[in-house]
Amino acid sequence: MRIDLHAHSNVSDGTQAPADVIVSAAEAGLDVIALTDHDSTGGWAEASLAARDHGIALVPGMEVSCRTEEGISVHLLSYLHDPAHPGLLEEITKAKDARYTRAERMVALLAEDYPLTWDDVIHHVAPGATLGRPHIADALVAAGVVEDRSEAFSSILTSRSRYYVQHYAPDPALAVELVRAAGGVPVFAHPVASARGRIVGEKTYREMIDAGLAGLEIYHRDNPEEGREFLRRLARRHGLLVTGSSDYHGAGKQNLLGENLTSAQVLARIEELATGTAVVR
Ligand code: AMP
Ligand code: FE
Ligand code: FE
Ligand code: ZN
Predict the structure, then answer these.
(1) What is the predicted pLDDT for the residue at 97?
(2) Residue 280 Cα, ligand 3 centroid: separation in angstroms?
(3) Which long-range CB contacts under 8 A does 139-148 form with residues at least 24 apart?
């Protein structure tokens, strides 16, 4: 069984429509794919139809943007939650709305130094999609300022850049609690991805575990080897599930479908824990 539990469509910052992500997943020889767009379940319906057509199982999911009180960014994967559950829905809606104001501020700052307008950015965003820095990156690529998204993220758009603006995002322990309340299974995405920015310490892990964290995404290209041993120990000590996934973004990132995989036993455990919705088969 080839199971990849982390992929994005153009409902957030992937470059393919949800149905096309499913086609690519089937072509990559996967048996199971999770669609985990940032702060949105908007791709679930289209992906479900495509999954049935292409004989691949779909795990409906989402990646919740969070921030600790120290200002550290945390991504929380949610699997099989009820998309209509009010608590979680309110938080992601608030974050999704705040992302627009935040992008407007970033574009205003960038426009002082680069040929960039709000329309240039919106041009790269599918209707209703979760807006993020990757869309600003796409506009900078189109303007000839950078070669690709990666170059934008290593320079102009890093979290340390003077053009960087934060947006509202829930505390990770609150997000874990809300995912659980919605019947979902919360898994900490790429927890030690230090190249993206600061990573959390013991206190945040403790709070998330106390709130009901179910697993750690250990096998992800952004987790350096040093951090993985720490995560394996943490998983053993607290009985957390261990997942591996690609974090595919279509042409938006180099990550390839199936480059990391999750075991069938772990997926079975995720299905046992979930009460919000079911795997589409
Ligand atoms: P935001 O949530 O708007 O702050 O933007 C962060 C998003 O940018 C993450 O979801 C990543 O998928 C994406 N990202 C981060 N680094 C890169 C990179 N080097 N190339 C492409 N996308 C990236
Ligand atoms: Fe992303
Ligand atoms: Fe992420
Ligand atoms: Zn992701």
Answers:
(1) 97
(2) 23
(3) 140/110, 140/114, 140/116, 143/114, 143/115, 143/116, 145/114, 145/115, 145/116
Q: Could you tell me the residue ranges of all domains in the chain? A: 3-93+168-273
Q: What is the pTM of this model?
A: 0.98
The pLDDT, as a whole number, for residue 83 is: 98
Indicate which atom in ligand 1 lies nearest the CA of residue 103.
Answer: 3
Phi, then psi, of 162 in degrees rounded to 5 = -75, -10
**What superfamily in CATH does domain 3-93+168-273 come from?**
Metal-dependent hydrolases (3.20.20.140)
Residue ranges, the chain, pLDDT below 50:
none
CB atoms inside a 10 Å sphere around CB 55: 9
Amino acid identity for residue 22 in this structure? I
Ligand 1 atom nearest residue 133's Cα: 3
Asked whether the beta carbons of 58 and 48 are under 8 A apart, the reply is yes
Which pLDDT score, from 0 to 100, does residue 163 have? 98
